[in-house]
Amino acid sequence: MSYHLSQLGWDEHFTSSFRRFDRADSSPGRVLRADRGVCTVLTADGPTRAGLGGSVMLDAARDPANLPCTGDWVVLRHWPDRRTTIELVLPRRTTLIRRTADKDSSGQVLAANMDTVAVVEPIHPEPDDTRVERLLALAWESGADPILVLTKSDTTTDPAAVARQLGDLAPGVPVLPVSVQRGEGLDALRGYAGPGRTLALLGRSGAGKSTLVNALAGTTVMPVQAIRDADGKGRHTTAYRNLVVVPGGGTVIDTPGIRGVGLLDTGSGLERAFADVTDLAGRCRFDDCSHDSEPGCAVQTALADGSLPPRRLASWRKLRREVEVESGRRSARLARQRRIPTPPSARRL
């Protein structure tokens, strides 16, 4: 099956990046899936399997985040022996990245070059406010436009009321109640995965991400498992990141269910996710206000009159502390790397 690259998101931005690598034995492609050093890549002639070239491996040795990931546009080289390798990852326009479990503040790239990140949260048994806030900070930091998708809207009598409630946690973010069972909200969601556009789905296991992918694709392309009615949780149905082409052009990226999300140095993402709190903080009398007992504190005034819930402020403070810690770890890691001399063999490459 062949593809028109523009339907997959190829545009003048990527054309310009690829131009100096355009030669007879090279072509562009978009990574559908990356698995243990081998990638499935969509090209104008259809999907192909590609290993990693030497330059990509060298970049990855410096920083694992440089490895090709789902959604990346790459430069493929076609060898006389019919091998195909990825020689370069073209500069990413947007990047969805979370902190890994180690303590050196490194990152794991979940997806790249998406136009929209949908934070997917189920209405049943009930939305988790703290998780929504954390995922929205991650989505804002990616550089893409975030939306909040509330799945299983058929499990409540008034999904619009739930959407309004969750909207208070998502300043400036569209909130879409969706029911795949009833077909409600899907048309609005399809607009984010139209021709040339990419929608990435982010949420926990059992949130309904794979069900949404299947609905958008019009067929079963991702496995779906039943969840427990008691708590709404399910086993991981997607253990890898996968890009799916939807009918009429456009793509959607399904990411593995995330139990915990560590934030990196997501200062700007956190500010946008908590735009209501940061706006209040900017109105305080003192620039270094700690928002505890200082005179002229707009945050404390909002707490007193009920316009700012205490839980919202506590969540903001917790995530700010986390970002500050990770920023310090990242700075220390980069400083250590600068002190390590480059081996002579590597300098000759």
TrEMBL record:
One record GO biological process: ribosomal small subunit biogenesis
Cofactor note: Binds 1 zinc ion per subunit.
Occurrences of domain EngC GTPase (ranges): 112-259
A single GO cellular-component term on record: cytoplasm
Residues that, per the record, bind Zn(2+): C284, C289, H291, C297
Keyword annotations from UniProtKB, A to Z: Cytoplasm, GTP-binding, Hydrolase, Metal-binding, Nucleotide-binding, Ribosome biogenesis, RNA-binding, rRNA-binding, Zinc
Residues annotated for GTP binding in this entry: T151, K152, S153, D154, G203, R204, S205, G206, A207, G208, K209, S210, T211
Localization: Cytoplasm
Region of interest (Disordered), residue spans: 327-349
Reported cofactor(s): Zn(2+)
Primary localization: cytoplasm
GO molecular function, a single term: rRNA binding
Residue stretches of biased makeup (Basic residues): 330-339
Enzyme Commission number(s) from the entry: 3.6.1.-
Family named by the database record: Belongs to the TRAFAC class YlqF/YawG GTPase family. RsgA subfamily.
Assembly description: Monomer. Associates with 30S ribosomal subunit, binds 16S rRNA.
Record function comment: One of several proteins that assist in the late maturation steps of the functional core of the 30S ribosomal subunit. Helps release RbfA from mature subunits. May play a role in the assembly of ribosomal proteins into the subunit. Circularly permuted GTPase that catalyzes slow GTP hydrolysis, GTPase activity is stimulated by the 30S ribosomal subunit.
NCBIfam families, A to Z: ribosome small subunit-dependent GTPase A (TIGR00157)
Protein name: Small ribosomal subunit biogenesis GTPase RsgA
Organism listed in the record: Actinoplanes utahensis
